[in-house]
Structure formats: C-alpha cells, structure tokens
Amino acid sequence: MNNKFSKLAIALGVAYSALAASHISYAAESAAENTADANATQQASNSNAEKSIEVISIFGQRNQLATATGSAFVLNEEALNQYEFDDIHRVLQSVPGVYIREEDGYGLRPNIGLRGATTERSSKVAIMEDGVLIAPAPYAAPAAYYFPNVSRMEQVEVFKGPAAIKYGPNTIGGAINMVSRQITDDTDKPLREIDIAGGQDGYLKGHGIYSQRLENSEYGDYGFLIEGIHLASDGFKELPNGEDTGFVKRELMFKADFSPANSKYYQLWQFKAGYSDEESDETYLGLTDADFAINPHQRYLASQDDKMDWEHYQFQVSHYIDITDSLSVFTQAYRRDFDRDWDRFNSFNTNRSMQTILTSPDTGLNALFMQVLTGERDSLTTEEQLLFTLNDRKFYSQGIESKLFWDTRWLAVDVAIDAGLRIHQDQVERNHRQNALLMQNGQLVNSGIAQSTITDNEDTATAVASYVNADVDFGQLNLTAGVRIEYIDGEAKDFLAGTTESDTDTVVLPGLGAFYQVNDELGFLFGVNKGFVPNSPGQDTDIDPEESWNYELGMRFSNKLFNAELIGFYNDYENLKGTCTFSSGCRDDLDVEFNGGEVEVVGLESSVQAEFAISQSLTMPINIAYTYTDAEFQNDFQSTFSQWGNVTKGDKLPYLPENQISVEVAIAHENWRAALLFKHADESPEAAGTGTELEGLMTDEIQQWDFSAWYQVTNALRTYVKVDNLTDEEVIVSRRPFGARPGKPQQASIGIKYSF
C-alpha cells in the first residue's frame, strides 16, 4: 500500500477512535424512545434493523423523496423487475435529466451524463454501489469501463442538486447509487430464487439467489447471501466470416452480517465480496453512413479479432452502530481491483484517422483503405498495414470512509447533521502494445514487424474528502446547507519518457437547498451548489479543473390521483473540460485534458406518475418523464479536442438532445401486468464546432418502444416476456469512436422466476 495512503488511513483510525465517529448517509428514523414497555423495546429493535439496511441508500425513511431539497428519483425493485433490463441505459431512460450515448447496444460500456455533464464513459457522474464509488479509478481514471450488473440491484437512485456535495469527487451533475440485494431479514424463511431466460440473438440469463438469517439468543443474529448471475448473447452484429459478436458476463456476490446480542449499543457488521468478469467480441470500429443504410448490423473484417476481457474483484467491510438514540455511525473500508485487456483494431499505419476514412470513404486513398478494411483486397503497402493495439490496464481503488449522523430537536426545530470523512486512493497502470497486421485472403496475419510498446505509464491519486451537511426542518420549511472539502494529490509516471509529475489541489464546494411545503399537496424547492470535476494526474498546469455553479428551482405536487415534479436548472460553467480518449474518437494525445471555457446549460425536468382505476381488479399506471436542455459554449476558442474543434459562442455541446421524453403506460392486475414504454430523443450534434472530422453531423432521432409483461402463475412461480425495441428501429446512435453505430435491434425474450 502506498506510504501516503497508509499514513492517512492511520490518521482516520485515530480520528474515528477520538470521535467515535461517522455515520450513515441518510440513516433513517431515530430509534424509539426509551421505555420499560416490552413492545416499545421490540419496536426500537426493529427500527435499528431497518436503519442498518438503509445505510447504503441515498434516500432513507427520514428524508422522503417528497421533501428532498433537490431533484430526486428512485427506481425500486418493482420498477426494475417490470422490464427485466440488463442494460443500465434502458433502466435510466425513464429518469428526467439523464442523457445517454449508446455505443454497443447492450450497455457494456455505459455513457451517462446528468444535467449537461458529458456522457463520455460516465466519467463526470459519481457512480456508486451501496454508497461506495465503483468506477475502476474514480480520481485517476474515472472512465467507467467497469459498471455493476444492474440485474442484481434492488434499487437505483439518482440525485441531482445540492446533495451531490456528499458524494464527490464529481459534483457537476449529481450521483447515481445502485443498491445491491440485501440479506433477508426473515428468520423463518430463507430466500431462494432462480431466474432463467432466453431469447433472440442467443440471449441467455441465469440468475440464482440464496439468503438466510439465523438468530441466536446468546450471540446475536447473523445472515448471509450468495448470488450468482450469468448473461450471454451471440450478438446482433454480423461478421462476414460468421464469427460471434456477442458477450458473456458472469458475477458472483457473497455477503454476511452479524449483530451481537449483548452489546451496549445496537451494532451491525457486514462483509461483502464479489467477483465478476466479461468476455465480449466488441470493437471501436463502426460503419460508413452508406454501409449503415444498407445493413446497420454488419461489421468489417478488420475487426474480426477485437475482444474485451476483464475481471473485477471487490471487498468491503462495514460497521454500523447506534451510539445513542440520536447519534449513529457508519464506516466502510473497501478495495476494488479491475484488470482489463481490450485487444482491437485501431487504425492503419498512416496519419490518416479512421474517422476521416469512414466519413469520406470514396475519396482518393480512402477507397483503397476501405477495401482492405472490408477484406475486398489484401494489404499491399506499408500504409495499408492494420495497427492492432493490445490495451492492457490494471486499476485499483481503495479507501475508508466514515459518516456521522446526529438527529435532535432544538428550540422546537428538528435538526439533522451529516458529517463524513473519506480517505481514498486509486491507480491505473497502462501498458499498451501495438502489432502491425496484414489483411490476407480475408484473414488478419502478422506482418513480421516486432511488437512495440506505445504507452507505459502509471497514474495515482490520493484524496482526503470531508463534508458537513445540516438539515433543519421547521415544519413547512426544510433547509439544508453543507460544504465539501477535497484535497487531491496526484502523481503521473511515464515510463517511456522517464518522467514523473506531481500535482495537488484543494477545493471547497458549498451547497444550499430549501423545500417549502405550501400544503399537503404542493411544495416548492430551490437549490444551489458548486460543481467540480478534478483533473487527472499529470495534466499541464494550464488545464483548469471543471467548475460550475449549479442552480435549480421547482415544485412538487401530490394528491390521490397523481404525483408531479417540475424543476428548472441552470449550470453556469466557469470551465468545461474534455478528455482525449479512444472512445471519444481521439487517436493521439490520449488521456490529455482540454479547457473548454465558459458554458451555460439551461434545462427543464418534469415527471408525472398517476394510476387510474379501470375496474375493481384493473388499474392503469402512467409514468411520464420529460427533459429539455439548451447547452451552449459562451466563448470562442480553437481546440484540437475531437469533439470541439473551432468553437464559436453559441455552439451546442455534443450528445445533448434538446428534447427527451419517456412515457410508460401499463395495465395492472393482482396477478399480472403488461406495460409499454416509449422513448423519444431529438437528434444531437456529433461535434460542437468546425474543423473536426464529424463537423455538421448529427445522431439520428430516436423513437423507441419496449414491451414487457409478467404473470404470477403461483405464489412461487412467475413467467415474463419482454421485447426490446418493439418496432425494430434502426438509427445511428453515435459515430464515435470510429464510424456509425446502431442501437440494439428488436430482441424478444421469455423467462421464469421460481422461489422455493
């Protein structure tokens, strides 16, 4: 372990002992009042158990969505089970203020943005699992090449606004927290469930869960959970040689917890360990627009050997304790390791980029390159050698964080104070090698040129982050005010150049929110916070961190018929930042960051949920989410970043559609439910300014329908059917990294869930 990290971990241990400290994010209701009554004692015990479960959730019982001082959205287990989506992109399509850029059709490498934050590899959103940062290296290399399997989640929470200061380091757009399956709290009945499904394109899913809780009057109660999932598909894209273009993903999760019986305070210890891996025949190579029009699912022969292979390990130890009825502490120590190899075709042996070749395929030498790309002719010249890169990266992320929650009543006012401290370190090691291959008779063969190392570096970031947040409830008026402080120490080693660069940064991020409840049905909210995205290690001194002031103003309405939320937001960027990666379309200057200057993002989010009675046994739930976004640069500048180019004030940010809407209509019965989900997204620009390879090009407008239905055959058996992309719409969702890419075509599947 790095020496700096060791010292900081010891410091946190001392602080924890001295303060008894830390808590639980939104730890739920206070324990029942002390009383000699046995029933009240039992109620207190149950309340503690509920609190221990909710520590990993952004939204606990204490802070209901209806009074949250910020835009808040929760997809619960029922919502996740309705469509049985394996793709986080499809899960989030019904959440206002969320932007998606598809890439592979399965969500293997998610691109998610919130409120104008760049979608690129979800790198500007605080992505968490059970309240802990889950990106491979959230500070040093935040691109989400690993993403948790949403099929094993019980809840997905999205928060935008002032509360983002609690999570960090990225506080521009907000936070997404995925709550994994909890250990059963039923001591009488173990949880045993299997879920098996199959469908088009060789789709297969196998999902098994076993969880049990035991009680021992002498020692306490304890429980465990074992969960395994297997997902696979042959892929919907087609190689001329008939090889698969799909994927296999596997995941195994184990949890165990223990609550001692004779402790002076209620306590819960939990251990969590997980392993997951993926093998996917995925590529960065897309199509020309003309070839896309002929067959959007084809793949060029040059990508026949492309393959991603990764493994992910996670370990976590958590401790929760009620020190008093009003003071709780929650501490987590964690370690994640991620090892990935992405071997793929990257370019020809020329300065001519793949974007240039694919956007002008009939021009001069580009036509010859295209013939080699498709296997129509063999490689004949040195320039026609195909450069195949072996992109080997190793990541770790480790840390300890502690959160304290104090809930009291002062001068007839309810006061809740959160305070947290996290010491974190993460690292990425890049070892990229390159082979020169030849296209010969439709096969890729070695050119005989020795393999070369093109990248060999190591970036490390160590961060100390703390926050304090106060929530004051006056009854009708709920106020929150908080501040986050981050100290980040980065180090970048380039082993090829023989250089080491170090940098540090300290930032103070305040936030303020308010919710005023006019009556039982209507309330208004306001929020402001400082947004921040840190620089990765080793950037030039003239590269500024991404900073903004974010504002929101809105209302909530709720009665017996429906719930509605309408929020306007304004993000005023002092500096927008771009990062050059293969996935963004860059070939050179990889991992170099660029200043984009001032940007304004203005938008509107609205959501409506209603449920109408059709008959005594049938209801019609309706859910609508709409997002309007206007995101423009506020200055003129020239940039070599592939998504910007020569920007003029007023140019639009790439991949942010002006209008998005999601409409779900269902028919529900006690024993069955059928639902139709419609998604619309406007076209959006592929690049902001002029002088770029994708200048003037737009993604296609999306009109997508998904259908799902389930039927409860018995108490133990449920069957379900779903059809993704019901109308089989074929659109260009992006031309990055290299060439036009399709979304997922129609895929029908059927499955069963059996509990025993």
Draw up the topology in text:
Layout: H1 3-19, H2 38-54, E1 71-75, H3 77-83, H4 88-92, E2 98-100, E3 112-114, E4 126-129, E5 132-133, E6 153-160, E7 175-180, E8 191-199, E9 203-216, E10 220-233, E11 247-260, E12 267-280, H5 289-294, E13 307-322, E14 327-348, H6 354-359, H7 365-374, E15 386-410, E16 413-440, E17 443-446, E18 452-473, E19 477-494, E20 499-517, E21 522-533, E22 546-558, E23 562-579, E24 593-613, E25 619-633, E26 637-638, E27 646-647, E28 659-668, E29 672-681, E30 702-712, E31 717-724, E32 732-734, E33 741-742, E34 747-755
CATH topology annotation: Maltoporin, Chain A
Q: How many beta-strand segments?
A: 34
Q: Outline, from the CA principal axes?
A: globular
CATH class: Mainly Beta
Q: What is the CATH architecture annotation?
A: Beta Barrel
Tally the helices: 7
Assembly type of the shown chains?
Answer: single chain
> Quick one: biggest sheet?
22 strands, antiparallel, barrel
Low-confidence stretches: 1-46
Distance between the termini: 45 Å
Task: Count up the domains.
Answer: 1
- What is the C-alpha radius of gyration, as a whole number of Å? 26 Å
Instruction: Look at the helices and sheets and give the structural class.
Output: mainly beta
